[in-house]
Amino acid sequence: MKKGVMFMERIKGKSIFEGIVIGQPYLRRKKVLNIEEYKIDENDVEKEMNRFIVALEETKSEIRFLKNSLKGKINDDELKILKVHLMVLDDPVLLSEINSGISKEFINAEKVVDTVVGNYIEMFSKLKDPVYRQRALDIKDIGEKLLNHLMSEDRELEDLDGKILLAKEIFPSELLKAHHKGINIKGVVTEYGGNTSHVAILAKALEIPTLMGVKGIKQMDWDDIIILDTRKENSCVIKNPSAEVLEGYIAEKKRLKQLNREYEKLRGLPAETADGNKINLYVNVGGNLDLGEVGEQSPDGIGLLRSEFIYIDSEFFPSEDAQMGIYERVYNEMGGDGSKSLTIRTLDIGADKNLPYYEMPEEENPSLGLRGIRFTLAHESIFKDQLRAILRAAHGKNIRIMYPMVTNLWEVEAAESILNEVKDDLREEGIPFKEDIEVGIMVEVPSVVLLADVFAQKVDFFSIGTNDLTQYILAADRASSDVSNLYDGYDPAVLRAINMVSEAAARHGKKVSVCGEMGGEPMAILALMSFGIFDLSMLSAFVPRAKSLIRKVNLQEIKKLKEELLTSRDSEQVKEILKKSLRGKL
Ligand code: PEP
Ligand code: MG
Question: Fewer Cβ close by (within 10 Å): the C or N end of the chain?
Answer without folding.
Answer: N
